[in-house]
Design brief:
alpha+beta, outer membrane lipoprotein receptor (LolB), chain A, eight-stranded mixed beta sheet, globular, disordered N terminus
Length: 638
Amino acid sequence: MLNAEMLKQPGAIALLPLAFSIWHLAFAQASTSTLALFLLGHRIGEERCSTEGRGDASAMSCHFEYLDRGAKVALETTLRFARDFSPLSFESHGRSYRYFAVDTSVPAPAKGTATFAIDGMAPIAAQALLVRYWLAHGRPDTIAAAPSGDPIRIREIPEAADLKYLHNHPARRFVIDGVIWGREVLLLDAEDLAVIAAATTAGVLDFEAASTELPEPRVASLARIVRGLALDPSNVPGVLPRQASRFALTGGRLIDATGGPPIEDAVVLVRDGGIDAAGAASAVRVPRGVPVIDVTGKTVLPGLWDMHAHVGQLEWGPVYLASGVTSARDMGSELEAVTTLRDVWHDGRVPGPRLLLAGLVDGPGPNAFGAITAANADEGRAIVRRYKTAGFQQMKIYSLLDRPTVAAVVDAAHAAGMTVTGHIPNGLTLREVVEMGFDSVAHLVVRGAPGSDELKETIAFLKSHGTVMDPTISWNELLGRSAATPIASFQPGIEHAAPVLRRLIEGANGGSVTPEQARERLDRSLQIIKALHDAGVPIVAGTDKGVPGVSVAREIELYVQAGFPPIDAIRAATAVPARAMGLAGDSGTIAAGLRADLIVVDGNPLERISDIRNVVLVCANGRLYDTAPLWKAGGFRP
């Protein structure tokens, strides 16, 4: 794991306290700064800021712009502030991520309380001013964000005071919680508190910035290093398991996801991370001395899977578990970051699901998604070897790869014992990529009107090849909704989300689409998913983004809305993903000898599928947790 030691140089000197007057006077002078911006480790744009003093006030103006897969994202911000960095006015308009708009005006923040004007992670330089405000006002416990009122908490990491980033120049590290969902890290110059580097998120994807004043090769490496600093497990509150070695769940209804009928008054015995026995109380005896948890009136199911995740923050771990998700397939995050998360969650240093990994590879160029790209077959094969060595289970192919490189990646992955998923590259068709060897396909890319011969032929083709489909229909519903339709009307789980995340997600919609148009589009998609399922094409539940963790339940609900029997919708998030990942003999159902990944929900999802949201206990690899502390550890409301 990358950490502060990677930035230290021999002969480090202790950082002396810097008097407020020194750095205030330095800041009052005209200055400019430029930061390189990175999404998933790929350099995609710049933030350019200028600051000028005007009497007793100063003004910072920033232009923040990058390309995300060819889509321009731009934000213009002006922040006026007093000598003590108190904000006088704030204007920020544009977008910080392609789906999320910013349109904020704060003429004059409230007086009398610690308040700073800010709306989201951009511009990064505004967050450096936030830190200066915090220092100048005696390091208050919380700062109210204007206009939202959200509490922001800042910590300086003392052991990082002698970090040196260039020519033995000391730096200071600050952890900020509340500007976005989760914790950010700012690495600031110890002399003038200008931004050296930052780790944050854009649309919950890994996002970094680094000063362009550094030598060019150093900029990208520093961005990776600061991402590593953000993954320090001490940044997330620990949650102790309720039980962790041996226990029994008794009295509940057991839905084992094998497809068989539920078992009333069941017993599930767990020992050392595995399931010892599961079945009716009349057939399973609880050994003397084993702790018993009575779950009468509740339902025991296998832990849920999210088969289309993008994780880059420690906070995803406890939120996933609180939502009942005990396994997730990451479909494209920074390699070093996602392997760190995999290992931290596996070790239990921070509670989290088992993380399976699909290695993202795209074609080269400014429009690439992520930093790992292949321009030809040889590069594609080398990237497969790199991911295999890092412990990835799959390859995820993206849009800009050419046909020969796609073929090379697919063949190399299969030879290495990996499977292949992903998007359909530009210039290729669904039929072509399946014939080339795609084992599964991301998103609902099937064409043809419901009931049409075209759709029937496509479905028959997918069935004959055993292709797994990952529709991410809950993400489509959220992005395609009418602005007049509140997300909480179909996704009540958004009420759990941290306020700053909830507002971000609520800003995403289909624009001028009417509620009726959005409903018709969703219904057509659900009819296609139902037709795929009825024909025997494997459907696996995945969320892409949506509401972290919570959207898995919505994905399951939508499958029932499409016409799946509830047990089939549940299996799409349990047994079917396990089989698709080659782990049917390890997990996905509840049976003796399998991994102890299971959940206890209040209610009966076979009668009311929304009860799948009511997770009260979750067992991940034999560690049993109450969900309320997990929600809190992830920054969500129980």
